[in-house]
Amino acid sequence: MSRRLPRFLHFFISLKKIKETSIKTIFFLTAISSIIIIFSIIYFLFQDGYSIFQTAGLWEFLSGSRWYPTGTPPLYGAFPLIVGTLLVTFGAMVIAIPLSIGSAIFISEIASPKMRAIIKPAIELLAGIPSVVYGFFGLIVLTTWLRIGFNQPSGESWLAGSILLGIMAIPTITSVAEDAISSVPKEYKEGSLALSATRWQTISKVIVPSAFSGITAAIILGMGRAIGETMAVMMVCGNPTYGLIPTPITNVFAPIKTLTATLGIEMGEVATGSDHYHALFGIALLLLVITLIVNIIATVILNRLKEKYTSSSKKRFKLRYETNQKIKRYFFWVMILIIIGVLYVAVGVLITISLLVVAGICYYLNKKISAKNIQRIAFTALFSAIVLVLIFLGIILSYIIFNGAGALNWGFLTEWPSNLGRSGGIFPAIVGTFYLVGGALFIALPLGVGAAIYLNEYTREGRVTKIIRAGADLLNGTPSIVFGLFGFAFLVLYLKMGISLLAGQITLAFMILPTIIRTTEEALKSVPQILREGSLALGATKWQTIKKVVLPPAAPGILTGAILGIGRAAGETAPIMFTAVVVSGFIPSSLFDSVNALPFHLYMLATSVPDSRAQQAGTALVLLLVVIGFYLIAILLRNHYKKTMKW
Amino acid sequence: MINISKETKNKEFKKLLLGLIVIGVICISLFSGCTQKTEGLPIVLVGRDSTSGTREFFFSHVMNSENFSETLQEKNSNGGIYQTISQTPGAIGYVGLGFLNTDVKALKINNISATVANVLAGTYPISRDLYMFTKGEATGAAKEFIEYIQSSNGQAIVEEEGFVPLVDSQPYNSSGKTVTGSLKIGGSTTVFPIAEKAKESFSKIYSDVSITISSTGSGAGITAVGQDTVDIGMSSRDLKSSESSLGLVKYIIAKDGIAIIVNPENTYVDTLTLEQLKAIYKGDISNWNEFI
Amino acid sequence: MIKTKEIITTKNLNLWYGEKHVLQDINLSILSNKVTALIGPSGCGKSTLIRCFNRMNDVINNCRITGQVFFNENDIYGPSVDAVEIRKKVGMVFQKPNPFPKSIYENVAYGPRVQGVNDKKILDRLVEKSLHDAALWDEVHDRLYEPAMCLSGGQQQRLCIARSLAIEPEIILMDEPCSALDPIATAKIEDLIYDLKQHYTVIIVTHNMQQAARVSEYAAYMYLGKLIEYGETKQIFENPREELTENYITGRFG
Q1: By CB atoms within 10 Å of each CB, which of A63, A452, B91, B128 scores lowest?
Q2: What pTM, to 2 d.p., does this model score?
């Protein structure tokens, strides 16, 4: 009894089909945008950087011992800069790893729910503090403490950079490690406890080993962050000219120059198109390659982790147990010998021996003390880790609040700066910051949400999604200063936008894109499949289903991601330093005007305008309030959303 | 069986305490071992980054183009140097005269103090001209702005900011002129304060003109004006031979002395000769107590 | 024949999860060297009850307990009692096999190790004995160092039993040990339980009436957090005193 459909309906259906396909195509285009961006970053860095490998030679560039691009003859040896980057990162990891792993264990295994509800957001707030604020704090406070505390001629040193970077890496490592530890099946924990293990034995022998790969990935991600960090390092590390490798290499009080700091200092002043300019792009390329490698390793490990819990029976090449044990034992002793050797070189005979004695005592005590007391010691240590982290947070916040509150008044917020910012207010910088992040969000939100919808709704997991996700991950790991250089080369020079609001907005948009993709995807995933099937079963098209059924419940999650993105964009200095901002702020009247922004204003005040301490602290406070405000909204929104959304 | 008896608990606790005390003592001794006492006051060298005009001037006029010591710490602005010097007792640095104030101590060079008068008289040995460049002859807003700075009104600002004014400048005459549009200025961090302050009063005369000033460094300023990204390039050094092909026109807008500054706590020196200064920056003299 | 005694006794045991009153006035004595089955519909508090016997409920945050649980005449919820010490004497096997992601050997050696046994020879002996007792030795003796995750579900569950035997407990609690297993694996576990009661007291929670009838000597029927009836399995199944019990056993509900 089938009747032919009326003609207009046919037309209507084919129109619908066209609409559906074109929507899908649009989403596909947004999805591949992150890959296009990462490739164009590599392309532009390479295009501007490769000539230095020709003029100076690739090997000389990598291994040369002096960085002196304006000398006669110019020297382009990036080796000391690479060493500097590695040393600062290493020091940061020495500080960050124990503290953040300790905090992660404390939060997920020991803290009561109430405590967790306070500590977790607090550590997430630590992630929200802009790096220029860290740098400001480091420059004014930390370096002075180090100089006086250790009786050094100067506090601007490797150690200062490592401490700051360590604190900055803590939130990243803690949150990823905490996720890994929390995702260890509850059954393991119960099984261990039922076998009369103490809580600490359960944590140290079952939970942490099970979460080991996740923790490793967390560390590597934190490392990537630390390697790519610019502003804080540039402000506190001393930056010896030529790039100096400390002598001896363990001298933590020696000034040090990193790859990022070199870019941050020299990029603004270099003559475009000169060899020096190309050399800086060579440095950026090097930096990008290092961070890409680090991030790829982390991604691979995290993917393995996912497989581990889903498919268990995958057989891998295994050494025989005895050989394995033997290798482990040899490795252990070799490590011990290396550590002793390093100690000997670093601190001399006496201290090495005393350290060995301490280690011996600890080992002896470990054998003698009951499991219960070991637990007590361990929990105390974990607790002090979290307390230390919170103390860091407290010191930084209270310094800025106490010093900044004095400068803060209505005039400061609403007036134009005068006398180079020594008096007057920061109104243009505030407006500029909101223009920048608003524009960045306007560009990044459609791209990011579109990409996430494509990944989650339009494709199955496969090669395409893997590549797109990898692109987003790599973009996420790209140092902010590299975005800055890319923006300068591509937007400012190649597209002839000039130092403009638009260039800054686009650069920031590229930077926050991965955050938005990831949070949107999470939000979409939390919408149960049955809702979609229900809608499709009622004859709705894919797009109708997405629009009417999937997006509304996911909206708060997407909003959270957007706000996190805004927070990140508002605090960044490096990407806009060469693309959008100038000191003398006025409110831009078009997209092609340059602007001032809070983080840059703070940076300029802190490094270029003497006698403006109150304004510096005031600006830092306003910046902090803006950024942390965004983060706080995002965290609260997310918590609220988690509580109310129960499927 | 279920309870650990109190005695063993106490014993273990004492052992634990003892262990912790031992560890604590060793840590403290380690810490104090690290903070060894230093003799005198080691010199901390602070200078500008390699693209700075001030550094190039210092490099050619003080160092006679000999290399700096490897321990020279780079700051990318005069203010950065000032900040470090005011916080670090052993530090020495060089900044434009405009950056002097009570937080740092300016040293005499060859027994002549770094003052505007001495630079004007030509007796202070480390001084230079400050420039603005335009691509081709300055026109429109750029021309008026440069004229304004070169006038006695502008030179008052120059003096107010601590730089050395040009001799015989005339008052600025704005009668019958209208200036509109936008003006982009970029370059030397040394010249920046002059331009910024001049902008404030210049905008009062011509309310329709919008001026943006970025302080990026002399090299960048010259490059930018050469590429037409800015209308006026500020510089604290003259053009280099490689830049002569850019077609730039030079305007001297002020003179500047380079002050050698140390921390006020530094009581070892009040005056240096140029040779001593060079020796310090080459790293041949590494401690202030060598001056006693 | 080993003399039996009351090894676990509860007195007015009450338990709340937050506001929810999960166990109400449980009074129960469990005899040593017997297999006792806890039966009842889902959510009646059986698992919660056996988790009281080794204080596994301590792990749960908003759990509140009143009343007493005596183990060999010591109140395990007494003020100075360490849960760890209790768990040395009261082993537990869970519903889902939960071997650690370690080798078979390490899984069994885990308990002795955390109690401070580090001598390789003693560990070897303990591992072999425990695996023997759990009837797993013949199947795994040539691959002790392979990951425990490679075993089948039934083998994993026997490994978990071996693991709890290695700490030489007096009681073994089993929380629906066969619910995730197929009939053949279930039969093997049931045989094992039968062997175990020579040396251990076994308390088993089960949904499976036939299983309770097959393996246990005593049975307790629970309903909505209350202990309805407790007695010899035979009596409970053939001649229940309470109507509720009868309804459940004859399958009229539940």
Answers
A1: A63
A2: 0.81
